[in-house]
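Illustration: Iron ABC transporter permease.
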Amino acid sequence: MRRGLTLVALAALPVAVLAVFFVLPVSGMLARGFVVDGVLDPGAVLEVLGRERVHRVLWFTVWSATVATALSVLLGLPAAFALHRLDFPLRRVVRAALLVPFVLPTVVVGIAFRQLLGEAGPLAFLGLDGSPVAIVAGLVFFNVAVVIRGVGAAWESLDPRPGEAAAALGASPLQVLRTVTLPALRPAIVSSASVVFLFCATAFGVVLTLGGLRYSSVETEIYLLTTNLLDLQAAAALSILQLVAVTALLLVAARLRAVTDPTLARVVPRPRRPRRGDLPQLGATALLLVVVAAPVAVLVSGSLRVDDAWSLGNYRALRTPGEGGALLVPVTDALLTSLRTAVDATWMSLTLGLLVAVVVTRGSRGRAERRVRAALDGFFMLPLGVSAVTLGFGFLITLDSPPLDLRDSPLLVPVAQALVALPLVVRTIAPVLGGVDDRQRQAAASLGAGAWRTVLTVDLPVVWRPLLAAAGFAFAVSLGEFGATSFLAREESPTLPVVIYRLIGSPGAMNYGMALAASVVLAAATAGVMLAVERLRVPSLGAL
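Result:
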């Protein structure tokens, strides 16, 4: 009875928060799609899905996500080997630099590629500005780190003896790779590819910034239907389709993550010094580093140019509302709003994530308790099945009338961002808590330690680093979150990503220069947080 009451007490707050801020908005979204004038009408959803433009949107979403996933895997595999199996100078710096793009705000990535490929960019001669190629390039830039981290972690712990045995029997390095290494890494590769496909299919800021109205994914189409065309029923129908597809992808990814390979070494081998045969992988890694650095370098360079001269004018202009009153508040105010919102979203997601991690990782006594914990684990992971745009849309149509009229609440945006960050927080903390031997807690209790003393002496020494890493992830995600925030941010208190998007849509060279400068500031903030997290050496992307 005591264990049951403890479980209920720990799960009560996360369950209540998800019921109000997840189940209710998603249910409202489903109702908006299936119910017309108070009558259940599934045909309305089918009518929307039968539109020619919707077919084009679906095809472009699947096509761009598939191509971007294939390229991310092809570019990420050599770098995963070089950064996780070889030991060379500045290896950790290079690994951290290639991780940074994943946490850059999507709006910043889109602007960086526009600056690189646009009319005044160094690659303007390619004529790729506003093309599908530019969108795919932005998606690859954003997601190649997932492959490097996910496959690299598996490669790092791969038992080298089967490959060495094959080489001793006369197999060439290519044959060893094809017949031994890749089959052993197949679960990690397929799992990482499925996660990359999910991120590409639900990309918002990159597609919206680079594709505009000409090329639209399901995410951006939901946004345009809601904000430009006011067709909420069509937006709800697409949200339902996306919810089903994303949930199916997550189930596949979870099944693939559960596959373990018998060739994983019990003792992780130490990275070795590079050899002559490793030059192709090192060269590919160096090339990838240049490709990743190019858009960022062009973005920084563009932010320092005013009227074809080097200047800090764009940064000084951040204290103004822009040319022609493009904004209601200065960009610096939006930056402060983003920081305050990120702090609120971080403590919210940490509180919920820690409670969830404790609930799902504690050992169960009996089949009933095990089933309850498994059900709660599945319930808490539901936000993974809904994109940020869909979540923001659900907030928009359900939390705007009594008794839950929260549209004017300053906590609505941080709550939405906390839900977006929650799965990442749980995936960071739960594996560590789950690895703590419950016998240590029992031994502490038998020696007279109370519940809090046991937590302080057994759990806290193990979990404090993952907690700091989870806080960093949540803070970075909140700073750059654009999908849900684009629906919910108020005109007088926008966040920095929302302001950047408004600036690039406003005429005037000063506004565009301010967007570049604001993008650099936002990128520097998120990159700084993630570089600090990387020093904690806590698994992150691979855990998704």
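Reading the tokens back as a structure: The longest helix spans residues 52-85.
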